[in-house]
Write a structure and sequence with these properties.
There is one protein chain. This protein is α/β, with parallel strands linked by helices and 357 residues long. The chain has 2 domains: 3-7 and 261-356, Aspartate Aminotransferase, domain 1 (Alpha-Beta Complex), CATH 3.90.1150.10; 14-256, Type I PLP-dependent aspartate aminotransferase-like (Major domain) (Aspartate Aminotransferase, domain 2, 3-Layer(aba) Sandwich). It is built from 12 helices and 14 strands. The chain has a 7-stranded mixed β-sheet, sandwiched between helices. A 3-stranded antiparallel β-sheet has the order 11-14-13, with helices on one face. It has a two-stranded parallel sheet with strand order 1-12. It starts with a strand and ends with a helix.
Length: 357
Amino acid sequence: MTMLFTPGPVKLTDEIRIAQSQEMISHREQRWSELYGGLVERFKKYTNAQEAYLVTGSGTLGIEMNILNCVRRGDRMLTLANGEFGKRFAEIARVHCDNVEEQKTEIGKGWNLERTKAIIDDSSARGVGVFGMVYNETSNGTRNHIKEICLYAKKKGMRTIIDGVSAWPATELDIKAMGIDFFSTGSQKAIAAPPGIAMLAVSKEGAEFSEKRAEPIPSFYMNMKKHRKFFVEKKQTPFTPAVSLYFALKAAFGHLDAEGGPRGCEHRHMKAAQFTQEWAQMNNMGVVAEPGFRSNTITALWTDKAKEIKKQMRERYDIEIATGMGETKEKMIRICHIGNFTQQELELVLEKVGTLK
């Protein structure tokens, strides 16, 4: 069986895999309301959100749903990028907003308040009212300091949107304490369920804005008002969900709770990241992300043999790792310690990479 150490989808436990094979139920009956309502309430508690939505679709759908419910066509929006997914965030924003200002920094360099304060100050002074960025840059394993940045952006009067697809629950998250209005992640990453559910957490301020905005929300499927109405009235979704995936997500939430909740998951991933970074140092492989900004879920390493290492890992050992993306596709490998991996499996992957470097 192929060992997955890619950014997702990730390996499923037997319990999670079997859960999605349960007998189908109607999405308009009480059993579904109990399942969906219970999952939403758990996700709200995990993230300290006012509202939560678990929508059939990819993680990218979650990002776009948050943006189009938070951003109006004539708004001015600031985005920060340090990799391919930061760039994608800005691309999605431009679909729904005519005035997107994108600030970029080099690959491996993280964003913190010191590096963003002047940018936010300048943007705020010019009437920019929305701020957005990626929490964990999947393409190069860089973790941005979103708490201090979002709290400052909120202080300047901005609504905040965070793409946390490869971050939660392996990285700290409390959207209320961290100044986040709209947050999203995907079921196939660190929560380690099958792909296909976009998971959104919304603050009180964010929910009020999306509900009271006068401008039409430019989507039929991703209109948060529709999802809100169906949940409040029926604990249901407005459109047919991929029911089997929600059975699997319930099992994944159970696995998360058994691990000690999000904090336990965060601790396990943090230890794996530290172990991988120490291995890289001992084996003279440079970590792409600078110290203090390194991901809990993805370690990217510089190498001029990226394509060959990936190929040999698959053909010799039946292990899947990732290379870089975009301009770094052949310049780095990404070892993705995310989801349902064990320490023994991680050590095996590193051992095999070490024979090929």
